[in-house]
Amino acid sequence: MPETSGVHGNAGRGRRLAVWLGTAAIAVALAAVIGVKWDWIGGRVGPSCVLMSTQSGAKASITIQGWKSSDVCSSYLETHDGLVRTQSSQSGAAMCEVDRMNVRWIVRDPTRQESGPELCASLAGEPE
Known about the structure:
- The chain has 128 residues and is an alpha+beta fold.
- It has helices spanning 7-45, 69-79, 115-125, and strands at 48-53, 61-65, 83-86, 94-100, 103-108.
- Helix content is 48%, strand content 22%.
- Strands 3-1-2-5-4 form a five-stranded antiparallel β-sheet, sandwiched between helices.
- The longest helix has 39 residues, at 7-45.
- The radius of gyration is 25 Å and the shape is rod-shaped.
- The chain starts with 6 loop residues before the first helix and ends with a helix.
């Protein structure tokens, strides 16, 4: 019968321990990166809500994207007139994108009239 203890048995245990420690180190590093970048990740792939301008002739929309987007939308609506919550944003290129309040704000205005630039200026000038 082959002997399982000895040099080869201890080497196998040593390799398993090294693999386990390596895997644990990678997991800790990955958790640290995700923890630091969690809000940034949410601003790119997290849930979103859309606010649309209600001004006459205005077509601008604000997409708020991130893990806290629903709460941020609700509080923004309470403090800003001329916006309503809607299901879809305007098509076209973004006029501006701002990271603030741990979410990403994207303003689109296909007409490129006053409401889009005003929203961009407002977002850039507001305190966190």
